[in-house]
Specification:
With about 375 residues, the protein is an alpha+beta fold. It has four helices and 24 strands. Helix 2 (about 95-125) packs antiparallel against helix 3 (about 130-155).
């Protein structure tokens, strides 16, 4: 009886193994099941990314005018907002003491000049020592320098406009006593104005003034007006604005004419396509992909993305060239409108079967 029972157990175990074997062969392996992934469409750089930046208006050119000498102001009748032309008198000091000084220095110069003329005649007759003659020449040079200084001081009693513009503000009144280098007026160019914005370091780090398209003109709108005006890149600072991680970028334009007057200090909005001001490094075709799509492959020391095609993923080496508000800017053998995996990239392997659960359009 025990022998029969053992045979039955062995037979049952064999049938179970055969059944498990058949089940294994007929059922698909877990690894063959397509893995669900999220895909994002690749966009080539050049696709417009218009962003709005608050801006500040400033004069394209301004200067604080001052006298180089001190004295009493006897001519000053300008008011803030008044326009002046190049060479127009801004202010004048009392010149009496300065004219007297010029007359005195001129007399001293003429006296030494006559003395040198007599000394020259005596030298021709060998009636004067060379050392004495040299001393007279030296005194003449000193007198000439003193006369020139007095004449310059007289000229410095008048301030003229170095260029045509508008008086932004005045600091003195007529008949006031002023010191040398004390501010008199602030003169601003009224033909051109600047519009300044703050760009984050992530964008500014990719700017190259030599590669910015000079024909690209963003649009500026000014508070209180719906009209837009094209502006031209002028400059950008490489020192961060105090207390921020942003940098000043300045654009310039001809001051709007007509009913809407724009003054320095007013607010504006700049409509800027970021891609137009980011340098195209080495002339390579650049694309925008999500930062989450980039796999940092430590084995080969090369960043990669997983490209989706025909239900499979394959790795592609890329070069990271920067970042923008839309994502990472990369170059590589990508193409417009192709798809990359944008989530869970570390869980994939070469040639893995995947199925998209979400397809996002380009950033």
């Amino acid at each position: 009886m025990p022998r029969i029972r053992s045979s039955r157990i062995l037979l049952s175990f064999s049938v179970l193994l055969m059944s498990m074997g058949c089940s294994t062969e007929d059922s698909p392996l877990i690894g063959d099941t397509p893995r669900p992934v999220r895909l994002t469409e690749v966009q080539a750089v050049g696709h417009q990314e218009i962003r709005r930046f608050p801006a500040q208006v400033s004069a394209s050119k301004e200067v604080e005018l001052a006298f180089r000498v001190g004295g009493e102001v006897v001519e000053f009748n300008l008011k803030p907002s008044q326009r002046v032309t190049k060479g127009e008198v801004i202010a004048r000091l009392d010149q009496r003491d300065f004219k007297t000084e010029v007359t005195l220095k001129k007399s001293e110069f003429d006296l030494v000049k006559r003395e040198l003329d007599r000394a020259t005649q005596m030298m021709k007759k060998n009636l004067l020592a060379q050392a004495e003659f040299d001393g007279i020449q030296a005194r003449l040079q000193v007198a000439q320098g003193a006369l020139q200084l007095a004449q310059d001081r007289l000229k410095d009693t008048v301030i003229t406009a170095p260029y045509s513009g508008r008086i932004a503000t005045t600091h003195i009144e007529n008949h006031q006593q002023v010191q040398a280098h004390q501010g008199i007026v602030l003169l601003q160019d009224h033909e051109m104005i600047d519009v300044t914005i703050q760009l984050p370091e992530s964008v500014l780090s990719q700017m190259d003034a030599k590669r910015i398209d000079p024909s690209y003109q963003p649009l500026a709108t000014f508070n209180g007006s719906s009209a837009s005006y094209p502006v031209t890149y002028k400059q950008h600072k490489t020192q961060a604005t105090a207390g921020t991680q942003s940098y000043e970028v300045t654009f310039t334009l001809v001051a709007p004419k007509g009913n809407h007057t724009v003054y320095p200090g007013m607010g504006a909005t700049l409509h800027l396509d970021i891609d137009k001001i980011i340098a195209d490094k080495q002339g390579a075709q650049r694309f925008v992909v999500p930062a989450s799509a980039i796999l940092d492959n430590d084995l080969i020391g090369q960043p990669q993305v997983w490209v989706f095609q025909n239900g499979l993923v394959s790795s592609l080496d890329i070069t990271i060239q920067g970042v923008s508000a839309r994502g990472a800017i990369v170059s590589g053998d990508l193409s417009q409108n192709s798809y990359v995996v944008s989530a869970g990239v570390s869980q994939l392997s070469e040639g893995m079967r995947v199925t998209p659960v979400v397809r996002e359009r380009g950033l």
